Amino acid sequence: MGRSLRYAVVDVFTNTPLEGNPLAVFLDADGLSKGEMQALARETNLSETTFCFPRQETPAGIPVRIFTTVEELPFAGHPTLGTAAALRWALPALRDAREVPLGLRAGRIAVRFPAAAPPPALPCVQFGEMDQLPPEFGQLHDPAAVAAALGLPLEAVDPRRAAQTVSTGLSFVVVPLRSQEALRALAVPQAAAAHYLRGTGGGRFFYVLAPGPDSSHWRARMQFYSGEDPATGSAAGCAAAYLVRHGYAAEGAPLVIEQGTEIGRRSLLHCSARLAHDFGTAGGPNGNEAGYVRVGGGTVLVAEGRFFLA
After folding, report:
1. Catalytic: which of 48, 136, 262, 304?
2. Domains recognised in the chain with CATH numbers
3. Pseudo-torsion of CA 86, 91, 93, 94, nearest 10°?
4. C-alpha–C-alpha distance, residues 154 and 147, integer Å
5. Does 82 or 114 have the greater pLDDT score?
6. Does the annotation count 48 as an active-site position?
7. Which of 18, 154, 176, 224 is most deeply packed, by most CB within 10 A?
C-alpha cells in the first residue's frame, strides 16, 4: 500500500512570500529510512529539507533531521526556525505554543514565538527566535590566504580583524570585508575554497560580511557547492558572536544581517550575542548576565502538499 507524506514549503527570514530562504518540511516522517529522506531532499532540490517525528517526541523536543541535497546536517539555522514555525502552524497541539523545542542531531534547540497563535489568514507569517549553542572560537586565518581562497584581492579583506573559524552548532570561517562593493564582487572559486578549508581544518564554508549603513546593520553572502544561500541562520549566529568578540558590536546589541539580496531572495536575520562565561544560566559569574547567541526572523507559509511513495 502506498504512503502519503504531508509537507509544507516555507520561506524563512522574511515576511514576504518568495523571498528569504525556502525550506521543505515533512511534517510526519515516521517510518522513513535515511536513504528515503536523502532521496526526498534531492527531489525537493532546496538547500535544506527537514523531516519531523512528532509521534516520537521526547523531553528534548520533537526529533527533526536536516538534509541538504547531498548530506545530513547536525544543525542549520533556517531549517530550525522554519520547521518550528511549520509545526506550530500544522499541529493543533502547538497552535498556542510560545516555544517549540526541537531535538536536532546537534542537541536541543527551542524556538520562541511572541504571538499567541499563528494568524489564520494566508500567507501565514510568524516571527520566531532561537538561542543557538554556545560559540566555539577556533583558528584565526591569514588574510592573504583567505583572500586567495575567496578569489578576492588582498585589499578587499578588512585588515583590522582576522577571519576566524566560529561554531554555534555548525562551523564557518567568518570573513569581514572592507566594503559592500567587495561583497558584491564575490565569486568564490569553490575548488580553491574547499581545498583551503580542508587544509586548515576550518569551517564548512566561508561566511563573508561587509558593513551596512550603520554599526547595527551588516550584509552577508555564503556561496557553497550548490550555489548561493539566501540566508544562513547557523552562520549568522557565528557572525554575531564574532562581531561581539572582535569589537564590531556591543554585547547584547541588536544586529540585522541582510543576505540574499544579490540573488533576488532578500533575507533579514535578526541577531544578538552576549559572550558571558555562563550560557543558559541566569546570572553569570560576578553577577553578569548569562551568555547567549540569538538568531530570529520571519517565516512565511507559501505552499503545502503531499508526496506519494510506494
Report:
1. 48
2. 3-129+298-309 (3.10.310.10), 136-290 (3.10.310.10)
3. 10
4. 5
5. 82
6. yes
7. 176
